[in-house]
Specification:
The chain is mostly helical and about 200 residues long. It contains nine helices and no strands. The N terminus is likely disordered.
């Protein structure tokens, strides 16, 4: 089974302290890049999202058919490669579960649990999640634009904090194909700060 277990890999201090980004409903492409970055720190587990599970090459099997020792060594190497891949896949599945542990994306959490139950690979799950939450539906985009244009600096909020929030929303909209000119962004900043006594 591909389902991760406590004993499926050793937990090192580096692994346990590497922060996994939370998977939310928006900005999934940004999440995916950050998620892959977190995976790189432990046994290069990000490769499970890049490389398919190794299988024996039929041409080599035919070539070694009359050479028992060569065939045995080759199959042993394939088995080792498969075990390495399975371990990486288990790590990614575990970290996917971690990414939805403490946030409000219950749909993603259900998709991940169902996928693990159905023995889906980590790559299959990530592709499903990306397809589901990287929506280009006009209603989703319009709702995001409405949130962006209504953003205001909170009472006592520093301008740098407000700018960071604006940039995050802008990036999410950019991923959905909506871009803004520099003038529009400056206007949005001024609109968001104009009711602040500090600024």
């Amino acid at each position: 089974s591909k389902t991760p277990t406590k004993n499926s890999f050793k937990m090192t201090e580096d692994y346990k302290t590497t922060k996994v980004p939370a998977l939310r409903r928006h900005g999934i492409q940004t999440w995916l890049e950050e998620f892959k970055g977190a995976l790189m720190g432990y046994k290069r587990s990000h490769l499970a999202l890049k490389d398919p599970r190794p299988v024996a090459d039929q041409a080599k099997l035919a070539e070694y058919a009359d050479h028992a020792a060569k065939l045995r060594n080759y199959m042993s190497d394939v088995k080792d490669d498969q075990e390495d891949w399975d371990e990486r896949n288990d790590i990614v599945l575990s970290r996917l579960l971690e990414s939805v542990k403490d946030n409000d994306n219950s749909e993603a959490r259900q998709m991940i649990y169902a996928g693990i139950k159905d023995d889906k690979t980590a790559l299959e799950l990530v592709e499903s999640l990306t397809k589901r939450f990287d929506s280009t539906d006009s209603r989703v985009i319009n709702a995001a634009i409405k949130r962006f244009t209504a953003m205001k600096a909170a009472s006592g909020e520093k301008a740098t904090s407000f700018i960071t929030r604006l940039k995050e929303q802008e990036e999410q909209l950019k991923q959905k194909g909506k871009t803004f000119s520099d003038g529009e962004l400056v206007g949005r900043l001024l609109e968001g700060l104009k009711d602040s006594e500090t600024y």
